[in-house]
Predict the structure.
Amino acid sequence: MNEKTENNQGVRINKYLAQCGICSRREADKMVDAGRVQINGEVVSQMGTKIQPNDLVLVDDKPVDNNQEQIYLLYNKPRGLLCSRKDDKGRPLIYDHLDIPAHVQSVGRLDMDSEGLLLLTSNGEILQTLIAPKNKIPRKYKVKFTGSLSLESIEKLRNGGIDLGKGELSDPWDMSIDSDNGGHSWITVTIKRGRWREIRRTLDAVGHIVRRLIRVRFGPIKLEEGMPIGSWRNLSSKEVAALKRLHQAANPKG
């Protein structure tokens, strides 16, 4: 097959697979490198190969459909569920409670003990935009923890640079104190990266144990008050448009 890398028409294979909701562009490149992608019956060997309107694309010998409607969901995740398709230990998964196609993926993860807003989508490009650290997409959380923050700890949290171990330092927090009854406190925190158990590790480093962690916002999408825990809904057209504008701003040449 003459792979159309010289043709200015068409869509690059990695972008095409991301648009179809198969994976991110980076993951698509890995699929191509592993020989898992075919166009018109021939294995793709070049990352820059472009897809033309009438091409038949296969991934793992299964046809890819670029005409299916993209899916965008908001799930009010309960505690006690993993954001994973499978688990060797047999722990409960979010996908046990969501009636969605296999190509719909969670946008990042909430750990098993965390709850609240979880976005899921079949749009691999928007997913990658939201989770890429360089884009600094804000995530807002309500956090309950043991004890009260000292003035020194508040300053440290807002300034960042707290040692989290393994060479990691905390980022500066945009933080407000919501309540403090001596035994437990609530704060609202906005961070711009989704590192593993970042909020829990940061508060632990200044002597406090997180009791509840609820995500209430991711980028332009908010968890509305009163949405039942464990329920999910489709994003509205305005919410989808906001995600697309964010994606375009982050990828002006894409």
